[in-house]
Task: structure prediction
Amino acid sequence: MAHGRFIAYQPTSLQVTNGVSTQADPDSIRADLQVLRPRFDSLITYGSINGAEAIPGIAASLGYRAVIIGIWDPFNATALSAALTAAKNNPRVVVGLSLGNEMLFFHRHSAAELVELLDKLHAQAPQLGLSTTEPFQMFEAPEAGSILQRLDFLLANVHPVFQPWFRDAPEANAVQFVVNVVSDLGRYYCGPILVKETGIPTAPAEKGFNEQKQASFYDELGHRFAASAAAPKSVGSEPAAGDRAFAYFAAFDAPWRLQDGGPAAGQRPAEEEAHWGLYDEKRRPKPVVASIPPLTSRSLPPHDEPRQH
Result:
């Protein structure tokens, strides 16, 4: 978090229609990651099966610094086993697991079940950092305390576009909202906080979304986080800058999302769910990419950099 630049990544060849997933192709994954690598060196994934188990190894070969493996359903034995195997096989690039994505928010599993799983995995794989992904407000609820005590880092989704004020507010309000939320989360959790999902989709236009707003949002958010990092810290102040970061969301557009079910039973995805990418589904960059400086540090294959815990 202190030195990498994260992006949330789902393979362009992995698509889900009505709950049925295609198999991600390793050559396509490599092509995806080659497009991303000049500007991003750290990945957060969403699944550990259906071909996604190849991501850590391919990322390692391309010199990525870090991969956080997302497990969509960590209570699925096959998915959990695949993630643990991928982590074991790529120990210098896989730095942690995200156990579920908005799993509690949509009532797919309970907090008690998650606490039990966290305890089990801490004992089984003590070398891995463990987290879970939820909308930020879920971590501020009193019942989240037992979960926060067990997380090695916090992955929060902070979406200004889902706030009732977003459409009519000045553009700067969206960035300020993310900054405020991260500050508030620090009152509940004293470890590293990584915003996994935020941003502005590039369509549909009738909802006020476009490519320029996406680019402006990330440009300002990057400046705000950099300014926070440069600010002097006094004794008793918030943790160091490396403990606060955000990931770009998401790597590629996903038109297939509109043919899939929503995260809750009976729900269908909104149109904007297909347009979160910094690149389109054909890996073509949107304007936001030009405003993200290429990484100037040399590529770091896993064997060049010791793993730190």
Remarks:
- Confidence is low (pLDDT under 50) at residues 234-240, 300-309.
- The first strand starts at residue 6 and ends at 9.
- The radius of gyration is 18 Å.
